[in-house]
Write a sequence for this structure.
């Protein structure tokens, strides 16, 4: 007898009828129990709706009876107050009489004669008088009780033409107590919701939820139908069946929610009973299956093992059986296993190749995007850095043209031009050096040199930059001289770049450390600072070409992002390495240079510090620019060419401190200042009454359309991109300016 016959007998004789009838019985029991529980929910919701309607209709009837009082018709409000107070609905409901303008005449919540609030419900009163219909409000703030209330308002016509309305005001506790009187199973949630979806009363957590919005899906369902049910999560996060209906008089929504767990508990009990019956039937079926399939157990077990091996990725071995179908099954499983192994091997190779291609493409795309972004940033910064020195050069040239015979001015203008040209030459030199190094065109002039002499020269080159920021430099060298073979010029360039980088990225009055030590046949030089530090994103690529940290609006750091790339290239040409480390942003950074050397001795001298200050006379035009040459040259030009009295400051703090005493009529402000931006400085000066109508000119290296818009928003009258024509600045100062005609952008500032 074939296995097909055994399977047919077992399935047809036992399993199929048992499973079908057990499933049907289980489904019927579950539906019946669930529907019975939901009917209980609906009946509870309807009974609560009737209870609320009864309370509202009772309040309405009481008001209409009270409105027929002779005392009210005769205007005897004191007697009417006593009658209304006796009609109060406990401590949570009180009566209010309002005239046609919405002014409260009596309020039984307060003693008679107490001060009553000003008219606040005129529109409602007029609506009730006009329609002569009862109005039930949503939950609203009470003007007397300083809490949330609901009201029932009815019109009160008087024979002599006077019009009043009577209102019963219920505190939210009134309806909370009302629904608490309904006996509901533990865990059920009962709520009354007004037409705007806010809770009027709730049997669970009423203190926190009265006046708050109910679940939006419940509010939406109640808006679509008069009655219904939904399944959703309550505010407490419990999944529940929620049955709702509406109050006839008020239109409020009455909702009763029961956790799904409670509703379906009886259904689960019925399922358990049915499952036990099904289990018993299955046991009988197993016994019959064992009886009919005893001879096939071993063959089936071998087939199961073969299928398990196939699922685990192992090709099953061929197996012989007395059953024809089993032999065919084992042969098919073995053939499938061999094909599976071949397919897995091919898929692994294909997946590895594809992943390698994807990884390579991703890395190449990321590198291209980073290089393209770095190139764009470099070109933008190159334009800015080359434009910035042109401003003092142009102004100095104008100054020379105006007074060529003034030796002091000629000397100062020449110094300005020389310094700025030297700065531009330094930028171009860095670019040419990087270009030559990256193309392999740089050759080193190797000689025997002493490390301390190299560091001394690097300190000299960066002395002015360090002094301008008032940094403290600490030099620590070994007691014995350190001799090494290298290119002195290039080594000085390495350490000068690192010192300049530390000085630029360290706030004023910071510390810069230079420490050298011997480690075997290498010298290790660490340049550290207490500056801005490195972000985790910047640290891995700080030595890449054009790589720079986030630049502030004052662009005080300067540079083109070439210095550290040049340092790494020159260090590697000397056979050394350079690394960067930082605890994080704002915690300083350190750069470690390791070079081959021969130990000898010499002490290093710390550089001396000097400080200079250039400031013009304190008069009627204030220039604030951290570029000292540009500020002084422009002040001298305005003084000589236009007869203006000019004072110069180099940071916003000093300008704000001296603005009142200087009393300028016009301000020429740089945008990139070291402490705050020129935009913020302009806003603060505009806020001072004395300078509200002064002339404000933005003179900056940022000349994009968005920069001009920012200047207008900050209150500037004019925006000039460096280098600006000094004569044009002079013309702007001559332009008459009436008070009160400031731009709208200035007013917004």
């Amino acid at each position: 007898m074939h296995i097909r016959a055994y399977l047919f007998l077992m399935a047809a004789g036992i399993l199929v009828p048992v499973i079908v009838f057990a499933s049907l019985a289980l489904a019927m029991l579950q539906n019946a129990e669930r529907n019975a529980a939901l009917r209980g929910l609906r009946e509870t919701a309807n009974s609560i709706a009737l209870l609320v309607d009864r309370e509202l209709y009772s309040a309405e009837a009481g008001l209409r009876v009270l409105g027929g009082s002779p005392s009210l018709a005769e205007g005897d409000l004191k007697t009417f107050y006593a009658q209304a107070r006796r009609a109060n609905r406990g401590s949570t409901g009180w009566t209010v009489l309002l005239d046609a303008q919405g002014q409260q005449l009596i309020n039984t919540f307060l003693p008679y004669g107490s001060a009553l609030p000003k008219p606040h419900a005129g529109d409602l009163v007029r609506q009730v008088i006009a329609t002569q219909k009862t109005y039930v409000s949503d939950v609203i703030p009470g003007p007397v009780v300083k809490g949330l209330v609901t009201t029932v308002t009815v019109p009160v016509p008087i024979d002599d033409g006077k019009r009043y309305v009577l209102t019963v005001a219920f505190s939210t506790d009134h309806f909370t107590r009302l629904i608490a009187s309904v006996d509901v199973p533990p865990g059920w949630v009962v709520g009354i919701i007004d037409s705007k979806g806010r809770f009027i009363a709730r049997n669970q957590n009423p203190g926190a939820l009265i006046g708050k919005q109910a679940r939006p899906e419940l509010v939406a369902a109640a808006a679509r139908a008069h009655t219904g049910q939904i399944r959703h999560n309550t505010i407490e996060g419990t999944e529940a069946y929620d049955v709702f209906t509406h109050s006839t008089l008020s239109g409020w929504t009455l909702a009763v929610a029961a956790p799904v767990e409670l509703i379906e508990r009886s259904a689960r009990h019925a399922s358990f009973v049915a499952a036990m019956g099904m289990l018993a039937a299955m046991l009988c079926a197993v016994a019959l299956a064992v009886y009919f399939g005893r001879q096939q157990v071993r063959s089936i077990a071998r087939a199961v093992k073969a299928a398990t091996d196939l699922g685990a990725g192992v090709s099953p071995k061929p197996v012989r059986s007395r059953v024809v179908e089993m032999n065919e099954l084992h042969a098919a499983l073995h053939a499938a296993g061999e094909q599976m192994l071949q397919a897995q091997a091919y898929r692994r190779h294909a997946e590895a190749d594809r992943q390698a291609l994807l990884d390579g493409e991703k890395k190449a795309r990321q590198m291209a995007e980073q290089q393209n972004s770095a190139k764009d940033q470099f070109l933008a910064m190159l334009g800015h850095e080359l434009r910035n020195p042109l401003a003092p050069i142009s102004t100095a040239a104008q100054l020379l043209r105006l007074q060529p015979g003034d030796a002091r001015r000629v000397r100062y203008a020449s110094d300005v031009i020389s310094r700025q040209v030297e700065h531009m030459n330094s930028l171009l030199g860095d670019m040419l050096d990087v270009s030559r190094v990256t193309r392999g065109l740089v050759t080193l002039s190797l000689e025997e040199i002493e490390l301390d002499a190299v560091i001394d020269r690097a300190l000299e080159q960066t002395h002015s930059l360090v002094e301008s920021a008032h940094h403290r430099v600490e030099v620590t060298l070994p007691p014995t001289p350190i001799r090494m073979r290298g290119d002195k010029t290039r080594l000085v360039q390495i350490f000068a770049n690192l010192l300049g980088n530390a000085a630029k990225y360290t706030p004023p009055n910071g510390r810069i450390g230079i420490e050298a030590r011997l480690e075997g046949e290498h010298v290790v030089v660490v340049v550290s600072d207490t500056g801005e530090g490195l972000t985790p994103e910047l640290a891995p690529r700080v030595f890449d070409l054009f790589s720079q940290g986030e630049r502030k609006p004052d662009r005080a750091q300067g540079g083109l992002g070439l210095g550290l790339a040049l340092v790494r290239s020159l260090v590697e040409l000397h056979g050394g390495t350079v690394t960067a480390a930082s605890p994080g942003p704002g915690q300083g950074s350190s750069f470690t240079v390791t070079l081959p050397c021969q130990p000898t001795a010499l002490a290093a001298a710390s550089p001396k510090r000097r400080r200079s200050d250039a400031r013009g006379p304190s008069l009627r035009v204030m220039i604030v620019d951290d570029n000292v040459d540009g500020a002084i040259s422009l002040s001298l030009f305005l003084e000589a060419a236009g007869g203006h009295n000019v004072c110069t400051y180099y940071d916003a703090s000093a300008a704000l401190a001296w603005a009142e005493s200087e009393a300028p009529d016009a301000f020429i402000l740089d945008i990139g200042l070291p402490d705050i931006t020129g935009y913020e400085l302009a806003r603060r000066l505009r806020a001072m009454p004395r300078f509200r109508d002064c002339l404000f000119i933005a003179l900056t290296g940022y000349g994009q359309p968005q920069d001009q818009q920012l200047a207008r928003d900050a209150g500037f009258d004019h925006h000039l991109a460096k280098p600006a024509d000094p004569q044009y600045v002079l013309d702007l100062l001559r332009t008459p300016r009436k008070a009160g005609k400031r731009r709208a952008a200035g007013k917004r500032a």
Remarks:
- Confidence is low (pLDDT under 50) at residues 600-619, 738-749.
- The two ends are 98 Å apart (CA to CA).
- The chain has 23 helices and 24 strands.
